[in-house]
Design goal:
alpha/beta; two-stranded parallel sheet; 10 helices; about 35% helix; about 25% strand; elongated
């Protein structure tokens, strides 16, 4: 590799990654060399990383964004791609959120490891990967993938500004809350809407059945108090930390955005 690129590989500086290694016998044979004669090099042999990453647009374009291995490769099983997914998550290239079996504190204790979503670490990358132009986002409010971009944007903001792990909640078919945030003992449901239609049967059902102290909807609407929830403009998603570092008596209208 160093000969081809005319760039010396330094043991303490470079990470050598073999992707799709199962497709190249010579690469497989090279692992024996690294193991026996050059074990001080940092080597990652992770197959199918690119396949997983390329499938993200397809995964997010589904009405149900839960990660499906069959979208990566027909007939694929979890064990074939688990290492690739873990590598992408650990490298910070994708954001993973788990479904929870119970919407109770602590959410971490009720994670369903078989049910998760993968998002791009940056919404701009998601837009480019899906080949969506800026004018389509601004002028066209009807295409389905705009909802996925909105969720990706909000998750990116939450991930950067919150300490606790972010989850989603899907206890039944046709019943899903975009995000559940944990603030001390309080569980906060969050809905993210891209278009002009801001109604959500699942979000309404959750509020009716669970009666959370605080429920937040991010949308194109301005700040508005509506019965049992607060509407905030999407551009305020990055200020989510102001809504969670508080006491149960906190109210968003008291926050200085």
């Amino acid at each position: 590799m160093g000969t081809i690129k005319n760039d010396k590989i330094e043991k303490e500086k470079h990470l050598i990654i073999f992707d799709e290694i199962q497709e190249c016998p010579d690469a497989l044979n090279s692992l024996k060399y690294f193991c026996e004669d050059a074990n001080d090099y940092h080597v990652v042999a992770a197959g199918r990383i690119l396949l997983v990453f390329k499938s993200l647009v397809t995964q997010l374009s589904k009405e149900n964004e839960k990660f499906i291995y069959g979208c990566v490769k027909q007939g694929a099983r979890a064990r074939e791609f688990e290492v690739a997914i873990e590598w992408l998550v650990s490298a910070g290239l994708v954001l993973r959120i788990y479904d929870v079996k119970k919407n109770e504190h602590p959410l971490k204790a009720f994670e369903d490891f078989s049910s998760f979503k993968l998002f791009f670490f940056d919404v701009g990358l998601a837009k480019c990967a899906a080949q969506v132009e800026n004018k389509q986002i601004v002028l066209d409010s009807d295409f389905q993938f705009k909802g996925a971009l909105t969720e990706n944007y909000c998750l990116q903001q939450f991930h950067a500004n919150l300490e606790n792990t972010i989850h989603y909640y899907s206890p039944a078919q046709n019943y899903e809350v975009d995000f559940l945030l944990q603030d001390e003992m309080q569980i906060i449901p969050v809905e993210c809407k891209a278009g002009g239609n801001v109604t959500s049967a699942s979000f309404k059902r959750y509020r009716r059945e669970e009666k959370p102290e605080l429920a937040i909807r991010f949308s194109q609407l301005e700040y508005k108090e509506q019965d049992d929830m607060i509407n905030l403009s999407l551009y305020l998603a990055g200020r989510i930390g102001l809504l969670t570092k508080n006491t149960p008596s906190f109210h968003p209208k008291h926050a200085e955005f």
